[in-house]
Write a structure and sequence with these properties.
The structure holds 3 protein chains of 3 kinds. By secondary structure, chain A is mostly helical. Chain A contains 6 helices and no strands. The termini of chain A are far apart. By secondary structure, chain B is an all-alpha fold. A two-stranded antiparallel sheet of chain B has the order 1-2. By secondary structure, chain C is mainly alpha-helical. Chain C folds into 2 domains: 66 residues; 47 residues, no CATH class. In chain C, α1 runs antiparallel to α2. The chains are: A mainly alpha, B mainly alpha, C mainly alpha. Chains A and B meet through α1 and α4 of A and α7, α8 and α9 of B.
């Protein structure tokens, strides 16, 4: 038994199953982060005062650059695969993975500087939001790294058996990764600048 | 949980599969019955687990009903087994009463009805009705069942947590878990973790459902030829997909409040047991209510839409007529799903919400009642002039109509702020939503079980036992919920450990608690014929062929039970879903899968 | 979609250009922040820049500029409910008994003395 449209596109919808699936998943992610941003707005408008300059803007900016760069390398990993440059595809995917790791290391330094001052999420509403939002975003980064590690390791065998499906998987991973980047693009000004 | 007894017809499935699938490989017992990718096995797993949770949740309520009928008297039979921390000498403690109340709601909604209606029927029936070989992502499907199972186990385990979660036992803050109470009360951490599992499971499931319906429809099955049940599953899946994530976020925030000491939902200046709470404060308890009801109102439609889908299938089949107004039904369904996202704050009229927003939510609530009435009316009109077959599924489907009608109409006074102010938090509310969900949705689910049981097992359930089950349940369930309207209109509050003995205005109302108690226990007894029927019919029920109900939709073209891959030949659809009693046709049904002139 | 190699090579150039534009926008938003505008203006500017960046990522990296109907449909639905989720709780919290929506927001814009 084979399930139709796992690789090829269904004529009337123009989509393969996985493409629609990943977009629906991202739609639910939009609502997840939507609720968190809604929380932010309500708590901020209700607060008597809102702290400014609690976070290190420069570390945040560097992390923004890192994630944007990783988005470019991710889309390049897909494009090189489309052009049948296997070695360059691997290189870009490894680069994406490394950049994601650097992002987390950077985040670790930010977190530990707060904890060193004894200022955890319990300290204030602002820090509660900061830790929860960046923490959940960080979990998404970790999730993306797990998928990339799989596609670099055991998952890469699929390319021999079914190259089309492997290209699709890289594309879907990319869609997820760009979404994680997109969330950070909003998190950065909301938490660090405003 | 032993799963050996619940995969009826497993051998039949294999025999049927051998006939057409030359690549069929023999899977081991674990892969065939426990960690199966097959949507039918997963559907049956969901359905049976859901039924067990429904029974368990109902048992909790039967215990509570003793306390309400005879406050402070030792619980008979099982009282001595409940333990010193819950019911010393068999007499229920208030904390235990609160646990039972909170867990009854949670279990019935999130672990009983939704898994049965969406996970069970959706998984088993929907791919068959659209002519698909399986769900679009079978592994994901298996995963969503097991994540749900984990969530269920976490919830059950919370009854036994012993003091490390801010006290003993399960969550005690109602199924709505309003902070600040929920943040400081015992057992809530496990509730939140369990909910995060259940929500994740629903999200995975809903993605799978939507992709399956969009991508895997058989040749010729256009959207306007879809059985109404499939439409109901599609809209339900969108509700789950977009409404559940905010609750997941809210669950994470409440978890942070409990574990990391944040104050998302905790206002400043809280004093607990005479001591000021040492938190940063400045949180907003109403924020939880917004995020909770943003899910939980669409959730109401997650409970009712699949039920409407089942009832439509059963009514069309047993009236031997096309559904009245198929297109109107579909458009109403889609509109209903859409509107369900903008009505949630009608649960919050008593929170100090101003008149502008109250007016907005009253208006949307009145608007959403229109498509509900359209659907109910269309189903009622479908009965007009029909020669009805009073089979057991039809009895349950027919009862659904007035029961859901009562539930819906009693909701109108709750949707308008002036009357809601008086009725809020009384037994009237309990009566209202139980009429929608218990004799409404659960009756429809029973109809579905009797209707599709032959497809799942190859055998029919006993009609006499079915009739006893139906009439007994029908009488008892009305005796349970009808008196609640009287109690509620009299001002009797819900969530009272002793029913509210100390209030003078309850004096004439408490006597109904005895009637309700006996009706509830009677309702429990009348489920025994069903349980016996369910299991005995797996073995001894009358053997049926592919299409025992002479129905028109695609699932009846597959063998009973269908093998791996479902259909013997690729199904092709030639016409709409409910071509019953077509003039000039030799039989009173013309299936979707029969070519012209066949 | 992108099936022939020439089209992909063309879009590769586009990807690097978009990446560079995102870097520049991030620089601008930080630079604007150093000027210390009034809070409402700063929020508006920062969110406009973030939206521009976000739509660049979505339309180019995620290929949303040419997608299929079902995906647009699902996303439009999501955006609608996202707006509801953003705005309605805020209106409701702002509208407590006796205070029309506008008045409640106005009282928040001036920090009370502490």
């Amino acid at each position: 038994m084979n399930i139709p449209y796992t690789v090829e596109e269904r004529p009337d919808s123009g989509l393969a199953n996985g493409k629609l699936g990943i977009w629906l998943f991202l739609a639910s992610e939009v609502m997840l982060f939507g609720a968190l941003f809604s929380t932010y707005i309500i708590l901020r408008t209700g607060a008597p005062e809102w702290p400014h300059g609690e976070l290190n803007i420069w570390l945040g900016m560097i992390n923004t650059f890192i994630l944007i760069a990783s988005s470019v390398t991710m889309v390049m990993a897909w494009a090189e695969l489309k052009l049948h440059n296997w070695a360059r595809h691997r290189l870009f995917l490894i680069l994406t993975f490394v950049l994601a790791g650097v992002f987390l290391v950077n985040k670790y330094f930010e977190y530990s500087s707060h904890f060193a001052k004894g200022e955890g999420p319990w300290h204030s509403t602002f820090l509660a939001i900061y830790f929860t939002l960046t923490g959940l975003h960080g979990l998404h980064i970790v999730g993306g790294m797990v998928v990339m590690a799989y596609l670099l390791g055991p998952g890469a065998i699929l390319f021999k058996r079914n190259p089309e499906q492997f290209v699709n998987r890289i594309e879907y991973t990319g869609l997820y990764w760009h979404f994680v980047d997109l969330v950070w693009i909003f998190l950065f000004p909301v938490l660090y600048l405003l | 949980m032993d799963k050996t007894g619940i995969h009826p017809g497993g051998e039949h499935a294999h025999i049927a599969a051998h006939g057409h699938d030359e690549h069929h490989e023999e899977l081991g017992w674990w892969r065939s019955y426990v960690f199966s990718f097959d949507h039918k096995v997963i559907g049956i797993q969901y359905a049976v687990t859901g039924l067990l949770f429904l029974l368990f949740g109902f048992t909790l309520m039967m215990i509570m009903r003793w306390q309400l009928a005879y406050p402070g008297k030792p619980i008979p039979l099982i009282g001595q087994w409940l333990g010193q921390d819950r019911a010393p000498m068999g007499i229920m403690l208030p904390e235990f009463y609160n646990q039972l109340g909170a867990m009854h709601g949670t279990i019935m909604v999130f672990m009983g009805v939704v898994p049965l209606a969406v996970g069970g029927f959706g998984n088993f029936v929907m791919p068959l009705q659209i002519g698909a070989p399986d769900m679009a992502f079978p592994k994901l499907n298996m995963m969503s069942y097991w994540v749900y199972f984990l969530g269920g186990v976490t919830m059950l385990a919370s009854f036994f947590q012993n003091g490390w979660d801010k006290g003993m036992g399960a969550a005690q803050s109602g199924w709505t878990s309003y902070p600040p109470l929920a943040v400081i009360a015992p057992g809530q951490t496990m509730w939140l973790v369990g909910m995060i599992f259940l929500i994740t499971s629903s999200l995975l499931g809903s993605v799978n459902f939507i992709v399956t319906i969009v991508q895997l429809r058989a040749k010729g099955l256009s959207y306007m030829r879809l059985p109404f049940f499939v439409w109901a599953q599609l809209v339900t899946s969108f509700l789950l997909l977009l409404a559940f994530p905010p609750l997941e976020a809210a669950g994470v925030l409440q978890l942070m409040d409990r574990l990391a000491g944040t104050s998302f939902f905790m206002p400043s200046g809280l004093v607990v047991s005479g001591k000021p709470l040492l938190i940063s404060g400045e949180g907003n308890p109403l924020l939880w209510q917004h995020l909770f009801w943003f899910l939980a109102h669409p959730e109401v439609y997650v409970l009712i839409l699949p039920a409407m889908g089942i009832v439509s299938e059963v009514i069309a089949n047993n009236t031997r007529k096309p559904l009245w107004g198929y297109k109107a039904l579909v458009y109403s369904l889609v509109f209903l799903g859409f509107m369900s996202f903008v009505v949630w704050a009608h649960h919050m009229f008593m929170t100090g919400m101003g008149t502008t927003m109250s007016a907005f939510f009253q208006t949307t609530t009145m608007i959403i009642s229109i498509p509900s009435v359209v659907i109910l009316t269309a189903l009622l009109l479908s009965l007009w002039g029909a020669s009805i077959r009073f089979t057991t599924p039809m009895l349950f489907a027919l009862a659904f109509l007035p029961m859901f009608g009562i539930g819906g109409l009693t909701g109108l006074p709750l949707g308008l702020a002036p009357s809601d102010i008086h009725l809020h938090d009384t037994y009237y509310v309990i009566g209202h939503f139980h009429y929608v969900v218990a004799p409404g949705t659960i009756f429809a689910l029973f109809a579905g079980i009797y209707y599709w049981f032959p497809k799942a097992t190859g055998r029919k359930m006993n009609e006499t036992l079915g009739a006893i089950h139906f009439w007994g349940s029908f009488v008892c369930i009305n005796l349970v919920f009808m008196p609640m309207f009287i109690q509620g209109l009299g001002g009797m509050n819900r969530r009272m450990y002793d029913g509210g003995l100390q209030y003078a205005h309850n004096a004439g109302l408490l006597k109904y608690n005895t009637i309700i108690g006996f009706a509830a226990w009677g309702l429990g007894l009348f489920q025994l014929p069903f349980i016996y029927n369910f299991f005995s019919s797996i073995k001894w029920g009358a053997i049926v062929d592919r299409n025992p109900w002479e129905a028109t939709t695609l699932e009846w073209s597959a063998p009973s039970p269908p093998g791996h891959g479902n259909f013997l030949a690729e199904p092709i659809v030639y016409r709409g879903p409910y071509e019953y009693s077509v003039p000039g046709s030799p039989r009173d049904f013309t299936p979707q899968f029969e070519p012209e002139g066949a | 979609m992108h099936s022939d190699p020439e089209a992909i090579r063309k879009s590769v150039r586009q990807y690097f250009m978009i990446g560079a534009a995102l870097f520049v926008c991030t620089g601008i938003t930080v630079a604007v922040n150093q000027v210390h505008l009034a809070v409402p203006l700063a929020i508006t500017v920062a969110l406009i820049i973030a939206s521009i960046k976000g739509s660049m990522v979505a339309s180019v990296f995620m290929h949303l500029s040419h997608e299929k109907r079902w995906i647009y449909g699902a996303l439009i639905l999501t955006v609608l409910f996202f707006i509801v989720l953003m705005s309605v709780p805020m209106f409701t919290v702002g509208d407590s008994i006796g205070t029309p929506i506008g008045a409640a927001n106005a009282s928040h814009s001036q920090p009370p003395e502490r």
